[in-house]
Specification:
alpha/beta; globular; 288 residues
């Protein structure tokens, strides 16, 4: 079971895919700093890194919350980071009309969890021919992700051999990844059912574990989302142990100054150490 992400393959027998970056684009200098750090991590042979940042955080709690530079300026900055760092890049899209311009820059398109059931958005993303990472809605059972996968696979261009499902040909890389990022547990809290990782893998797509969004506390700061970054590494370790194919993190040199998701982000100067520990764990698990 494989999926192609830019120059990488993700899935069985492949290095761990690492999707990481700031939650939202801020300044060029900050994006380049984070991209440089991630490029250094990418020099390891046991990991493949994709830079992620949003040009627009359209699902903010409050009307007054900062959303980002917008699609035009944001995509220009993502393109510059990719060129400077040599890393593939990805970003969220929230509207069908954003898919085509984002695909001109990004190697992977990301569907936010709240929009995992939005058929028009999934179809537009697949129509670009780019690979798509769709996050499992916080309100969805892992088995229900089969329908998101089907929508995507049924909408890639007909000439694209990557639409072949992995249960039909394990040697043909697909273009669909699915992502676990926590499930609502009452109000203002998420929990992770680690069973969702093997369950979603059984649907025929590699699975990403989003470690930082999983520790969010929706609405926990009143008009903003809170979080608990101390739980990021324990959850990431559990996901690696149970067999995820990829990990997703948000990282920032000064998380508490980030306009979005600062409470659950990893400090940039601590990120390489975290990745090293997780990769050592993965090596041990694969040796069992």
């Amino acid at each position: 079971m494989l999926a192609r992400v830019g120059k990488y393959l993700c899935g069985d027998g492949q290095p761990l895919l690492l999707i990481a970056g700031p939650c939202v684009l801020q300044t060029r200098e900050l994006a380049m700093q984070i991209g440089e750090t991630l490029a250094q991590i990418n020099e390891r042979p046991d990991v493949n890194v994709v830079f992620k940042a949003s040009f627009d955080k359209a699902n903010r709690t409050s009307l007054s919350a900062k959303r980002g530079p917008g699609i035009e300026a944001g995509l220009r900055l993502l393109e510059a980071v990719g060129a400077d760092s040599g890393l593939p890049v990805t970003t969220d899209i929230h509207l069908p009309e954003q898919a085509a311009p984002a695909a001109e820059v990004c190697d992977l398109l990301q569907i936010p969890a709240f929009l995992a059931r939005q058929t028009d958005l999934l179809v537009a993303a697949a129509n670009t021919g780019r690979s798509v990472n769709v996050k499992k809605g916080q309100f969805m059972a892992p088995t229900d992700m089969r329908y998101a996968i089907d929508k995507l696979r049924g909408s890639f261009p007909n000439s694209d051999t990557d639409t072949v499902a992995s249960d039909e040909s394990d040697s043909v890389p697909g273009k669909v990844l699915v992502c676990e990022r926590g499930t609502f547990f009452g109000y203002g809290r998420l929990v992770n059912d680690m069973q969702s990782i093997p369950i979603m893998r059984s649907l025929g797509a590699p699975v990403v574990f989003d470690a930082t969004h999983s520790v969010q506390q929706p609405g926990g700061l009143g008009g903003a989302t809170g979080g608990n970054r101390e739980m990021v590494e324990p959850l990431a370790r559990a996901a690696v142990a149970i067999g995820c194919d990829a990990l997703f993190f948000e990282t920032h040199p000064e998380p508490d100054t980030s306009p979005s998701d600062g409470a659950n982000m990893i400090f940039l100067d601590q990120f390489a150490g975290l990745v090293d520990r997780l990769l050592r764990l993965r090596e041990a698990v694969e040796g069992l």
